From TrEMBL:
<keyword id="KW-0391">Immunity</keyword>
<keyword id="KW-0732">Signal</keyword>
<protein>
    <recommendedName>
        <fullName>TIR domain-containing protein</fullName>
    </recommendedName>
</protein>
<keyword id="KW-0395">Inflammatory response</keyword>
<comment type="similarity">
    <text>Belongs to the Toll-like receptor family.</text>
</comment>
<keyword id="KW-1003">Cell membrane</keyword>
<dbReference type="InterPro" id="IPR035897">
    <property type="entry name" value="Toll_tir_struct_dom_sf"/>
</dbReference>
<dbReference type="Pfam" id="PF00560">
    <property type="entry name" value="LRR_1"/>
</dbReference>
<dbReference type="InterPro" id="IPR032675">
    <property type="entry name" value="LRR_dom_sf"/>
</dbReference>
<dbReference type="InterPro" id="IPR003591">
    <property type="entry name" value="Leu-rich_rpt_typical-subtyp"/>
</dbReference>
<keyword id="KW-0677">Repeat</keyword>
<feature type="transmembrane region" description="Helical">
    <location>
        <begin position="21"/>
        <end position="46"/>
    </location>
</feature>
<keyword id="KW-0812">Transmembrane</keyword>
<keyword id="KW-0472">Membrane</keyword>
<keyword id="KW-0399">Innate immunity</keyword>
<dbReference type="Pfam" id="PF01582">
    <property type="entry name" value="TIR"/>
</dbReference>
<dbReference type="GO" id="GO:0045087">
    <property type="term" value="P:innate immune response"/>
</dbReference>
């Protein structure tokens, strides 16, 4: 089960001295820390500890240093049973809210000065069983609110004079089992600890205790334990303990005799409890000691005494106020008739472990006021007759003797007896008359005997009995109306017997029974089906663990076994001893409308019907661990929305996804150890928003991005404590097997795939839209730009070439205009005027890339004549040729381009050719005349254009045959 357990600090060390004002301010800071600044600790993952009821529990973790991941809000820190050797000044800097610190059972040999200075609210500090040798000055700085300090079982030899000075609120100090030799080592205690009430300095090496060695009166000290020291002198010559009420000077038998010197009987006049067990002292000194407490003593312990015990009892019982006498381990064997004659005021007598075999029938006759008699751990074979002479006796303890029989007169006249203990004897049977006079008895302990039959001992008597222990006997059957007379019984323990037969009506009369324990018996489902529990209408707890209950089917029962237990709150049926697997009937819990806890662990269950819990709407704790359920449905938990604790360890579950729709919004504790979970999903954890503790040890975690969210949550969440989370190991993939789960790097898992998909889709969509718009409205401009770019590249290749013109003109034309070129242009310019012309079909170099041929032809000619027609504008290669020529025109600043229009072309068709349209508007061009027009002028103008030098600044001849826009 989930434990709930126990802690505080300041930013600066507290002063070792100060005024009342400082103390008030310290208390105020402490209250501020605990009320307004502290966020209640609920949970988180710690590397070596767990949080339990606001206490960090780090027990048995083999720690060598104080962990640095303890939350600052804890109110307690338990580091006991580790291997810490040194406490550093920085270890508790962040833990200012602590009120409890446990450092016991370590190897601490060194503590830095002011190591506890930040713990201004600390109330209890435990350093038991360490290796401290010295308590130096400044060790306890800041502990002004400490009330309890335990430093027992160390090796302390010296104590600095001001070591205890900061602890002005200390009430309990335990320095037992150390190496102190002189009482002067603790002299400062009386000076510096004004509120000290209890001082334990047992088992040191004190040889003497003399009051003059204490310079001040310990006014507040009420409890002083000097026991088990090799004390030879106890001298009290001053009233140094005016308010002492408890004094223990006991010693082990065989030690050296002690000399007692108490100058004034009033010095111990307030001692009410005195322990002189095993003390070796002269009889007169012992008598003197007892006389010093003659007016105040109430309780005297004289265990394992070597002196004449009868005489000591006589003296002690003469003290009129003495009421409690403890005489353990004295090997009395026989109690005589006159041993307690003077003990007329004793109300409690303890004779445990004395090997008593015989008690005289009149041994207790003088003890008419005796209320408690303890005779356990002796050798009595029967109930002593002497106990019948005790009319005021309320409690009789006869445990651990050799009693085998109880007779009808054993408890005769014990009408005042309220508690009777007879466990751990050899009683095999009861008689129906044995308890007839115990009309006020409330508690009867008969466990661990040999009882096999109750013989109607509880049918008539014991009307006020509320607690009955019959466990660990040999009962096999509970008969009808066996407990009919126990109308007041509330708790019945029958566990650890061999009961296999519960007769119907066996619990009749137990109308007030609230708890019955039947675990570790042989009860079967057949006994349950008898309705044997129907008479227990007020039952709150029923424990049937480790019996023989099994059901083979989940079908409904005609008469559910607990249908009348409307008040039952706890039902436990785990660990049923059977080999075959089982089910639970779907209406097994019918009638349990107030059930809060249901325990079915280790019951070999294969499944749970989805309607199993529809009868238990208030269920808060469910334990179905160690079954082979393998799968749970969310529907199973829907009827129990108030569930707070769920135990499903070792159930072979592969997933916790059933929690997602299970409506468990109140679940606080989840233990799911040793299953087969590989991935813990975010939706699963978020479905239990109230979760404060989860235990997932021993599962088969997958160490990949599927668990990235879980890893991040374990380390960073501030609500849920993931127990032992830093020790989870990887089982998959194989190459990471055994690696710590929280050591896996999950940074690469932080990519948001959905966001990337969104961005990618958006970009593709936008690109498609831009491409569509561009193609529709700007496709010709893009084509032009493309060729312009190619021409630019070609221009760069030719830029550094020498002016070596092979031709007078390169003719750029479309194949559809070839008839005009070969029929009109070529004869006039080459044959008549003698110009050298370059034509692609005639002069291009075979095998050479077309673009290289075009470039070489344009740059190898003085002029380029573009024969422009509609087909020309549509041609890809013509467009490339005019682009290269245009670049040459603007790059070389020479008039190397002649435009010849064979037909009228609207300006709109020239729009994609921005440079051509610009040339047409700014420069001259030739237009082939219409039929009937003068062609002579056209050829003359063309010849003149070929004759110009090429300087763009030079005036060119007017070649225009008609204006163009």
């Amino acid at each position: 089960m989930f434990e709930m357990g126990r802690g505080v600090k300041a930013d600066k060390a507290t002063p070792t001295t100060g005024s009342k004002c400082w103390k008030i301010s310290t208390i105020f800071l402490c209250l501020m820390n605990m009320s307004t600044l502290v966020v209640p600790v609920t949970g988180f993952a710690l590397k070596t500890c767990r949080i339990s009821n606001e206490v960090a529990v780090c027990v048995k973790r083999e720690l060598r240093a104080v962990p640095d991941d303890i939350p600052s809000t804890v109110k307690g820190l338990d580091l006991s049973t580790n291997q810490i050797s040194k406490i550093h000044v920085s270890d508790f800097k962040k833990l200012s809210n602590m009120t409890e610190l446990y450092l016991d059972k370590n190897n601490i040999s060194q503590i830095d000065n002011s190591a506890f200075a930040s713990l201004i609210c600390l109330k209890e500090l435990n350093l038991h069983l360490n290796k401290l040798v010295e308590l130096q000055e400044g060790l306890f700085d800041g502990l002004s609110n400490l009330t309890k300090l335990i430093i027992s079982r160390n090796y302390i030899k010296t104590v600095a004079a001001t070591a205890f000075q900061p602890m002005t609120s200390l009430k309990v100090l335990d320095l037992s089992n150390n190496k102190l030799e002189h009482i002067t080592e603790v002299r400062s205690i009386s000076q510096l600890l004004p509120h000290l009430q209890m001082l334990y300095i047992t088992r040191n090496n004190f040889n003497t205790f003399q009051s003059w060695e204490l310079t001040n009166r310990s006014v507040g000290l009420s409890h002083l334990d000097l026991s088990q020291n090799p004390m030879v002198v106890l001298r009290i010559t001053a009233d140094v303990f005016p308010n002492l009420t408890f004094l223990n000077i006991s010693n082990s038998p065989g030690k050296q005799q002690m000399i007692l010197d108490v100058h004034n009987k009033t010095f111990l006049s307030r001692v009410s409890t005195l322990d002189i067990s095993g003390l070796q002292m002269a009889f007169d000194d012992m008598k003197t000691l007892l006389q010093t407490v003659n007016t105040s003593l109430r309780s005297l312990r004289m265990n394992a005494m070597k002196q004449n015990l009868t005489a000591l009892v006589y003296i002690s019982c003469s003290i009129p106020t003495m009421s409690t006498l403890q005489l353990r381990h004295n090997k009395l064997r026989t109690v005589s008739s006159d041993m307690f004659n003077m003990c007329i005021n004793v109300t409690e007598l303890d004779l445990i472990n004395n090997q008593i075999q015989i008690i005289h029938k009149d041994a207790f006759r003088a003890l008419q006021k005796l209320r408690i008699l303890t005779l356990s751990g002796n050798l009595l074979s029967s109930v002593p007759t002497a106990t019948r002479n005790l009319p005021a006796l309320e409690e009789l303890n006869l445990n651990n003797n050799n009693i085998s029989r109880l007779e009808c007169e054993d408890f005769a006249n014990q009408t005042m007896l309220r508690r009777l203990s007879l466990y751990h004897n050899s009683i095999s049977a009861l008689k129906d008359c044995v308890f007839k006079d115990l009309i006020r008895l409330q508690v009867l302990k008969l466990q661990t005997n040999h009882l096999s039959d109750l013989n109607s001992a509880f049918k008539k008597h014991l009307p006020n009995l509320s607690i009955l222990y019959l466990n660990a006997n040999q009962l096999t059957q509970i008969k009808n109306v066996e407990f009919k007379g126990l109308h007041s019984l509330q708790n019945l323990s029958l566990h650890d017997n061999q009961i296999k037969d519960l007769e119907k009506g066996c619990f009749i009369g137990l109308t007030n029974l609230t708890e019955i324990l039947l675990q570790k018996n042989k009860v079967t489902e057949a006994e349950l089906n008898k309705g044997v529990f129907n008479d227990l209408r007020n039952l709150r707890r029923l424990d049937l663990r480790e019996n023989r209950i099994k059901y083979q089917s989940s079908s409904s029962l005609r008469e559910p076994p607990f249908s009348q237990l409307f008040q039952l709150e706890t039902l436990a049926l785990p660990s049923q001893h059977r080999r075959d697997k089982a089910h639970l009937p779907c209406n097994f819990l019918q009638g349990l409308t107030n059930l809060l806890v249901f325990d079915m662990r280790s019951a070999q269950l294969l499944s749970l019907d989805k309607d199993m819990f529809k009868y238990t709407p208030r269920l808060q704790t469910l334990d179905i661990s160690s079954n082979e359920l393998q799968d749970l449905s969310s529907e199973l938990f829907s009827p129990i929305p108030n569930l707070k604790s769920l135990y499903i360890s070792r159930t072979s579950l592969h997933s916790l996804d059933f929690l997602i729709n299970a409506n468990l919004s109140q679940l606080e504790f989840l233990q799911a150890r040793k299953n087969e979970y590989s991935v813990i999903r975010e939706e699963t954890i978020k479905s239990v928003p109230a979760l404060v503790y989860v235990d997932l040890q021993g599962n088969s975690f997958t160490c990949d991005c599927d668990n990235a969210w879980f890893l991040q949550w374990v380390e960073s969440n501030s609500q849920t404590q993931v127990y032992d989370g830093f020790n989870f190991v990887c089982n998959h993939p194989p190459d990471l097997n055994g690696k710590k789960l929280l050591d896996i790097d999950i940074q690469s898992c932080s990519v948001d795939v959905q966001f990337i998909c969104f961005v990618s889709t958006t970009c593709v969509t936008l690109l498609f839209m831009v491409g569509s718009v561009t193609y529709h409205f700007l496709r010709w401009q893009l084509v032009y730009a493309y060729y312009l770019f190619l021409a630019l590249l070609a221009d760069k290749n030719q830029k550094n070439k020498k002016d070596n013109n092979q031709y007078d003109a390169f003719i750029s034309y479309n194949i559809h205009d070839e008839p005009w070129v070969t029929g009109e242009l070529l004869p006039k310019l080459e044959e008549e005027q003698g110009w050298r012309l370059c034509l692609h079909h005639r002069d291009f170099e075979p095998g050479k890339p077309i673009m290289d041929n075009i470039t070489d032809a344009i740059y190898g000619s003085r002029k380029t004549i573009c024969v422009i027609s509609r087909k020309y504008l549509e041609s890809e290669w013509c467009s490339r040729e005019i682009q290269v020529a245009s670049f040459r025109l603007f790059d070389e600043k020479k008039d190397v381009l002649i435009l010849v229009f064979l037909e009228e072309i609207p300006t709109s068709l020239l729009s994609p050719y921005y440079r051509m349209r610009k040339l047409v508007k700014k420069k001259t061009y030739l237009s082939w005349p219409h039929a009937g027009m003068h062609t002579v002028l056209f050829w003359e103008k063309l010849g003149q254009a070929l004759q110009t030098r090429g300087d763009l600044g030079e005036d060119l001849p007017q070649l225009t045959m008609m204006d163009r826009p």
